[in-house]
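To close the chapter, one final illustration. This time we ask the reader to focus less on the individual chains and more on the assembly as a whole: which components sit near each other, and how the overall shape emerges from the parts.
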Amino acid sequence: MQLNSASKEQLSQWQEELKVKHQQFKNQNLKLDLTRGKPSAQQLTLSDGLDGILKGNYKSADDTDTRNYGGLEGIAEARQLGAAILGLEQDQVLAGGSSSLTMMHQSITFAYQFGLNGTAWKDESDIKFLCPAPGYDRHFSICEDFGIEMIPVAMTETGPDMDQVESLIKADQSIKGIWCVPKYSNPTGIIYSDDTVKRIAKLGLVAAKNFRVFWDNAYAVHDLVDHPKPLANIMAACIAEGTEDSVIQFASTSKITHAGSGIAFLGASKSNLAAFKKHLGISSIGPDKVNQLRHMRLLPDINALTAHMQQHAALLKPRFDTVLKHLEANFSDNDLGEWQSPEGGYFVSFDSLPGLAKEIVRLADEVGVKLTPAGATFPYGKDPQDRNIRLSPSFPSVEDVDATMQVFVNCVKLASVGQKLAITS
Amino acid sequence: MQLNSASKEQLSQWQEELKVKHQQFKNQNLKLDLTRGKPSAQQLTLSDGLDGILKGNYKSADDTDTRNYGGLEGIAEARQLGAAILGLEQDQVLAGGSSSLTMMHQSITFAYQFGLNGTAWKDESDIKFLCPAPGYDRHFSICEDFGIEMIPVAMTETGPDMDQVESLIKADQSIKGIWCVPKYSNPTGIIYSDDTVKRIAKLGLVAAKNFRVFWDNAYAVHDLVDHPKPLANIMAACIAEGTEDSVIQFASTSKITHAGSGIAFLGASKSNLAAFKKHLGISSIGPDKVNQLRHMRLLPDINALTAHMQQHAALLKPRFDTVLKHLEANFSDNDLGEWQSPEGGYFVSFDSLPGLAKEIVRLADEVGVKLTPAGATFPYGKDPQDRNIRLSPSFPSVEDVDATMQVFVNCVKLASVGQKLAITS
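The assembled structure is written out below.
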């Protein structure tokens, strides 16, 4: 389907055919959902061994009774696992409750209100964050709630546009943070290049002293391929530059074990950790150590974790393949859509022709297919080109992903042809 | 031992005898600890059935797969249990993570930063809290961290001195909160009288619009007696006055099941809840629903909970009795100490003669007995009369509580006699 070389008659004929097909989908009373990066029930079942795994032994490796209060940093073996995931030492990692989003929110709350190893953001005016976009809507929501001004930065195949990032930060000391999902970025699925990691580690040399990189390594071990491209170690890069305090790292087991019931990790320099812990200890006596212990019995080390993730990959890969199959079959020979083929993570990021994302989502909704709202992947929910749609194929069955993608490609074509006809006439 | 009618010689002789005994304790190389309100291992074991209780059935009553993301308010049956504990309706309660302290901290963060159904505290100057004292040190720490000025209020046998509370609040709209532990108050163990509850419900009529009562009902079901004195329902009292928005309630299962791994509850009016949830949803996708489900399988309703708490009481009562036995045997016929005999909760609050609490704690530490630091129960850690010591007998064995109390009463006497002698000479 080459829109640019097609006659008006050809476009009208296509439009008719696509409309007929759209109506056929409508008649099927579909109820499909590709909105959220949720694991499927099959994936969750991989970790059902968690319940009952303790067999009456509630003692952690250092003989702590995990059932009682205390232990703000989490149990040692959980911190060790977090360290392995994040490429850190055990004493650079806190193992917390079930949500890394909560730890990010706490970090921002503490940095804003009290100062996290530096001046409190509230004591400065017009605080700003750099937001590589498309990105993760929940990151942006935190900024919006705090009234932190978000500056969008373009995403490239190697990570955020670092020329843009560096020049913005150099020019403006009121920029206090940048959101990064460095591996299988949400939603584009790319891995930050070694050069990007190095340049991010250098930001601490020019940024404000209370600037922090929020390094959300949510998909650190969520590979779909056997020999995944490694992500460079940000802490090692920071140490080389003397900027260890400029980065705070996050990860969790949420898409490893049970999605809402895992362990979250925060990794940082010792001075950042000390500052975080000071305020964390005001708000909590300690995390759920029993649940941490359950996780460690299920996944005692990084090798057990890797084997576990391969089982996830076996379930996820066919779903991703189905998405990509439809995109390739329909858009590889034309300019109606652009996407990347991720080697891990939870998303396929699709860019339509400019100005069509909202219309495509509306059309899909019309026939019972829920897609992530257009714009959700941009700060303030505003995609300036209205073209990005995040596809999340993990939760539905392969058959449902297939059915959804048939609808999706038809909606993309229908919207594209409609736009072309509107311009042409 | 009547210090006031004793001669100097008598005092000196007592001092000698007490010092000898103190030295004997020292020679025993004791290692005893009465500092924290932690359940004992025996108590924790009462809930060991939690692990493995799901038997592969991870569905909540409404067929939600608790293993996946979502459900910000917690599962319905957990909210129902929280409602039963707090005397509320299910839709007035959120079931959260493992820490009610975290929910209190969140409430204050949201009220301070964003406004919780009212003007944000940060937009007003010189924010203050009323702090009935002696009280819970972790409440005071939150205020201190936020730079909220704490105004101590006297505790009586019926709750905070309400004359003082009312006149302070009427005179000063910058008072934004009051901390209350209404049942088995930490540490005095008293239950707020019906009149106190009614007067607290009326505070919303005269206080600032963004004033909130932080009603930490931590010991709501933690009775030591068979027919506990009931606490009046604060929400019912507020409804009668039209002040439903003036109170936020908290509770948790931390001293019901495993101490760090339970469910926390927040209860409030619908408009307060909506405001809380708006910001909670920015910081979390939802609580650990699997753990909530485990709890509901173990404690399906309030009757199961009551039976469970009776098992706790059977373990706790001998420990409290031991503390009281020593206090009564040594101080009932003199003025060296004052205390109340709590019918529930986790503490016995002891008041020495003025100016001696620090010295008593120091003396006990000298012979290997750790007590809660003197002053900890007051704002800024400063007991103006230096006389309150919080005794927490739940964690040690009955034998250890007995040994500790032998040391304690000797330290109280030694400090008292020493003070008297210093005045006399």
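Chain A touches chain B through 56 residues (CB under 8 Å). The two ends of chain A are 19 Å apart (CA to CA). With these observations in hand, you are ready for the problems at the end of the chapter.
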